[in-house]
Amino acid sequence: MKGVKKHFEEEASEFDNVILKLVPHYIQMIDALVLAIPFNNNDSINIIDLGCGTGYVSMNIKERFPNSKLTCLDFAENMIAQAKIRMNKYRNVNFILKDIRKFEFDKNYDAVVSSLALHHLETKNDKIKFYKKIFNALEPGGVFYNADIILGSNSTLHELYISKWKEFMAKNLPGEEIEDTWMAKHHKEDRPEVLLDQISWLKDIGFKEIDIVWKYYNFAVYGGTKPK
Ligand SMILES: C[S@@+](CC[C@H](N)C(=O)[O-])C[C@H]1O[C@@H](n2cnc3c(N)ncnc32)[C@H](O)[C@@H]1O
């Protein structure tokens, strides 16, 4: 995990440019994540963005819910610094510099969202434990949605997903950089899980109205509601 923090500290200034080259349809994926939050635009809801990075998700939340009270959490100082610049014009935004794994929720939230961060939790158990923690921190009727890299249900699908991912990256990046930099980092740092396993963990934890809102091969937006 030390390597993950170092990677994002170093990448912060380039992140917004790079992410568009690495993640297929990133803007559409984040749009789906933010559109899944089921409240009225004027509601003053409490929302937390876990692993907020440079704040692209947070910015979209504030554009859609201007009265929301938004918490942006990340453990990389340089990423948070970029997020602070981006979020400067919005009211009711606070920042927490913290490792997700050590984070105790400071209050109950109407929406917990995350993008491309929770796959860094190392094991299945770490993820299940953290999803439970999110469930406990939600208000009844609150929602959790995660946009993330995932695994397919078998090796044939996995190979297809990886080849489609590389095909996308190849439109923007030289083949050598894809393999030596990005796939190398992916193998070293990322711990994605089978999407349908994650869906069943959410079910077991007690989430309802679980759905996969958006999907493009090995990237998906999924989550559910804590019942009232
Ligand atoms: C790929 S970036 C995504 C940033 C942003 N959510 C987005 O979609 O543009 C992943 C972010 O998660 C953060 N992150 C990864 N593991 C974390 C952890 N254990 N605690 C807090 N932040 C973490 C990284 O620092 C980084 O900013």
UniProtKB/TrEMBL annotation:
<dbReference type="Pfam" id="PF13649">
    <property type="entry name" value="Methyltransf_25"/>
</dbReference>
<keyword id="KW-0489">Methyltransferase</keyword>
<dbReference type="InterPro" id="IPR029063">
    <property type="entry name" value="SAM-dependent_MTases_sf"/>
</dbReference>
<feature type="domain" description="Methyltransferase">
    <location>
        <begin position="47"/>
        <end position="142"/>
    </location>
</feature>
<dbReference type="GO" id="GO:0008168">
    <property type="term" value="F:methyltransferase activity"/>
</dbReference>
<dbReference type="InterPro" id="IPR041698">
    <property type="entry name" value="Methyltransf_25"/>
</dbReference>
<protein>
    <submittedName>
        <fullName>Trans-aconitate 2-methyltransferase</fullName>
    </submittedName>
</protein>
<dbReference type="GO" id="GO:0032259">
    <property type="term" value="P:methylation"/>
</dbReference>
<keyword id="KW-0808">Transferase</keyword>
